[in-house]
């Protein structure tokens, strides 16, 4: 079995009973729990203008996700749509205690994490978030001291109780090693682009390192092999397994991440697709051999969607 599963025991408490066997919560290293299937307001819902005016399309997309049972909601200040996420939460009528809300700081030059965090809370209209992340390490330009200072500021947010868990996103092993040298509280998660064509197998096996350190993996762009890199070596495997289980290739792609103990985010705005995933994905599970087969075929192709300017062509970290 892929090393991504090692050391993590999903906890089904608090989940819908029909999902409890296959899409449980994952217990984090701080004792908190995160739903393993979430809805991301990422670049698909990126707001590029009119920041002072609510974009009703974004509000409705997030509200559609909540209405269809996606209570793990992942946002970021960089997306420009925290106000829309907050409005969707308010309109949904779902009790705050049932939601798991994530947002992220971009670490703007000359700005403290405290300032960024307060701004995010105000836009969201919330008193706290369940998970607060540093969006990327690349602003630090390789400076260990800067990474360590920002993490200390994140720890202060965690100490205040306004973020129940804290973590990072897009960190490579060297960024994590620098952060952990001085950390009082280890990151609870590292949110990364993850799919069969980007398994982070170079540079010291990122997933293995995260498991060793007890840091959970959250995957974004998990369906890249289907949505952006069609015609690759994974396609026939997805198709065969979809026929076997009576599902779609997209269901198989999500299941591949979940069956490795990886928290998985989707950004679809199509209600039918969101509803179908919630209904079908809990009903089947890939075998360890099938998980490994997809992983091995995926290694035959490399494809990165995001942060490409930070990597050389072919860099699989």
Automatic annotation (TrEMBL):
Site residues, Lowers pKa of active site Tyr: 104
Binding site for substrate: 135
Molecular function as annotated in GO: oxidoreductase activity, acting on NAD(P)H as acceptor; oxidoreductase activity, acting on the CH-OH group of donors, NAD or NADP as acceptor
Region named Disordered: 1-23
Keywords annotated in UniProt: Oxidoreductase
Signal peptide positions (record): none
Pfam family, one: Aldo_ket_red
InterPro entries: AKR, AKR3C2/3, Aldo/ket_reductase_CS, NAD(P)_OxRdtase_dom_sf, NADP_OxRdtase_dom
Record bears the keyword Cytoplasm: no
UniProt KW Translocase keyword: no
Residue span(s) of domain NADP-dependent oxidoreductase: 40-296
Active site residues per record: 79
Name of the protein in its database record: NADP-dependent oxidoreductase domain-containing protein
Organism from which the protein derives: Corynascus novoguineensis
């Amino acid at each position: 079995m892929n090393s991504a599963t090692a050391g993590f025991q999903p906890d089904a408490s608090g989940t819908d009973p029909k999902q409890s066997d296959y899409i449980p919560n994952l217990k984090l290293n701080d004792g908190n729990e995160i739903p393993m299937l979430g809805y991301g307001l990422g670049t698909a819902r990126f707001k590029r203008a009119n920041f002072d005016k609510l974009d009703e399309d974004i509000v409705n997309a997030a509200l559609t996700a909540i209405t269809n049972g996606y209570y793990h909601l992942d946002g970021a200040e960089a997306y420009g749509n925290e106000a829309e996420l907050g409005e969707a939460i308010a309109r949904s009528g779902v009790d705050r205690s049932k939601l798991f809300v994530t947002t992220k700081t971009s670490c703007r030059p000359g700005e403290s994490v405290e300032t960024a965090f307060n701004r995010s809370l105000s836009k969201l209209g919330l008193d706290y978030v369940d998970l607060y992340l540093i969006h990327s390490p690349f602003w630090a330009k390789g400076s260990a001291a800067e990474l360590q200072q920002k993490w200390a500021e994140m720890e202060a947010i965690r100490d205040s109780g306004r973020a129940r868990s804290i973590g990072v996103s897009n960190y490579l092993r060297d960024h994590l090693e620098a952060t952990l040298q001085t950390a009082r509280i280890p990151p609870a998660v590292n949110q990364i682009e993850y799919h069969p064509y980007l398994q982070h197998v170079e540079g010291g096996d990122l997933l293995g390192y995260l498991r060793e350190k007890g840091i959970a993996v959250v995957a974004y762009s998990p369906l890249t092999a289907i949505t952006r890199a069609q015609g690759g070596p994974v396609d026939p495997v997805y198709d065969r397994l979809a026929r076997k289980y009576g599902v779609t290739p997209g269901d198989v792609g999500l299941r591949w991440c979940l069956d490795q103990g990886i928290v998985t985010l989707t950004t679809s705005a199509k209600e039918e697709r969101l509803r179908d995933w919630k209904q079908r994905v809990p009903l089947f599970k890939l075998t360890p051999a099938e998980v490994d087969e997809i992983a091995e075929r995926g290694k035959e192709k490399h494809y990165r969607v995001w942060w490409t300017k930070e990597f050389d062509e072919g860099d699989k970290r």
